[in-house]
């Protein structure tokens, strides 16, 4: 028992170093594809196209010709499906049963001088823990890019939030600075749902949204004043081909909202909300996130471990000496 405990203690710095070296492995960041003509745009119903032309036109009036959207969230929540829905093309593979992408992918589309970049990313949870290597990959991929909007994706039809959700939010804040949350939109997929018997769709969506938003505020340590200055909007999304449609053939939610133009409107309102876009430079990548701060604690942790091991060794030696004498 004692020997096993000693082994465990001695093994800690080793396992830690494995984890760090994995995190720091430099994998060349793909720069993503160059902007192609946005053919998927024409696949949207005319009513949606008209609304989008109007929205992008307003952006261009403000001198904004490019919009870069980062999509993050746990695995399987519908990140890639949402990218496909927004682009109107099946650009990302979607899989119900396993993780589909292992590194970030940027999709760029060009329409009438306006470029939309959407960066899809691997899920941020692996084996029940925050997937720090994935987060590191995402950061490196984003080097020299500017993020206008973060879509933080989760599911509307999950009923609970737990500590892992808070940890993910916290890891994003540590990795990119908590300011990234002032550029974020909470996207809840699977929004064509039937709520439990006793509550309406509106009440269900607002309760679920508030639960996730509260977790974001706690996880990213967002102060009340900050959350009032830059409230995080919520966008409801239904990616399924079975999504109901209105008379104009637009995909609509149970509350009647045509969600694609509505989501794009929210995205644009965040991009132009007055808070600074997130510039991912080398400083931010090398930055002093909590994990990097954690690295500074490693010598202290190793020191304490060494001290404990020495104490235990001495106790064992004393024990053996005592045992020897009693024989
Ligand atoms: N009904 C419904 N299914 C959805 C929705 N969004 C995604 N799905 C399904 O959920 C599964 C996972 O979707 P993905 O888009 O691959 O999820 P992801 O977050 O990209 O997953 P990873 O890349 O593995 O992290 C697929 O079977 C999708 O068809 C939605 O809004 N409604
Ligand atoms: Mg995906």
TrEMBL record:
Domain of life per record: Eukaryota
Keyword Nucleotide-binding among UniProt keywords: yes
Coarse class of the protein's main subcellular location: plastid
GO biological process assignments: intracellular protein transport
Signal peptide: 1-17
Residue intervals of the AIG1-type G domain: 64-288
Keyword hit for Protein transport: yes
Family matches, as InterPro entries: G_AIG1, GIMA/IAN/Toc, P-loop_NTPase, Toc34
Annotated positions binding GTP: 76-81, 190, 238-239
Keywords from the UniProt entry: Chloroplast, GTP-binding, Hydrolase, Magnesium, Membrane, Metal-binding, Nucleotide-binding, Plastid, Plastid outer membrane, Protein transport, Signal, Transmembrane, Transmembrane helix, Transport
A Pfam family this chain is assigned to: AIG1
Any GO MF annotation of the entry: GTP binding
GO annotation, cellular component aspect: chloroplast outer membrane
Assembly and binders: Homodimer.
Stated name of the protein: Translocase of chloroplast
């Amino acid at each position: 028992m004692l020997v096993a405990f000693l082994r465990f203690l001695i093994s800690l710095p080793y396992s830690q170093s494995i984890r760090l070296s994995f995190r720091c492995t430099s994998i060349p960041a793909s720069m993503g594809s160059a902007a192609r003509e946005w053919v998927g745009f024409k696949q949207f119903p005319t009513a949606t196209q008209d609304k989008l032309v109007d929205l992008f036109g307003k952006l261009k009036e403000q001198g904004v010709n490019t919009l870069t959207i980062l999509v993050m969230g746990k695995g399987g929540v519908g990140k890639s499906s949402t990218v496909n829905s927004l682009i109107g093309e099946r650009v990302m593979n979607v899989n119900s049963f396993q993780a589909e992408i292992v590194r970030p992918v940027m999709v760029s589309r060009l329409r009438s001088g306006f470029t939309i970049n959407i960066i899809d990313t691997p899920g941020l949870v692996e084996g029940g823990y925050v997937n720090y290597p994935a987060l590191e990959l995402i950061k490196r991929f984003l080097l020299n890019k500017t993020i206008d909007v973060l879509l933080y994706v989760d599911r509307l039809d999950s009923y609970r939030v737990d500590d892992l959700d808070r940890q993910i939010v916290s890891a994003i804040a540590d990795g990119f600075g908590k300011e990234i949350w002032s550029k974020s939109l909470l996207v809840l997929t699977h929004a064509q749902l039937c709520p439990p018997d006793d509550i309406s769709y509106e009440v269900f969506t607002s309760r679920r949204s508030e639960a996730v938003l509260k977790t974001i505020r706690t996880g990213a340590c967002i102060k009340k004043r900050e959350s009032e200055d830059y409230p995080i909007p919520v966008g409801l999304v239904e990616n399924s081909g079975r999504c109901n449609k209105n008379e104009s053939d637009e995909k609509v939610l149970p509350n009647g909202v045509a969600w694609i133009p509505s989501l794009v409107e929210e995205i644009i309102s965040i991009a132009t909300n007055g808070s600074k876009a997130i510039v991912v430079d080398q400083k931010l990548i090398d930055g002093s996130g909590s994990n990097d701060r954690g690295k500074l604690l490693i010598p202290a942790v190793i020191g304490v471990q060494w001290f404990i091991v020495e104490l235990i060794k001495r106790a064992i030696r004393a024990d053996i000496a005592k045992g020897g004498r009693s024989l």
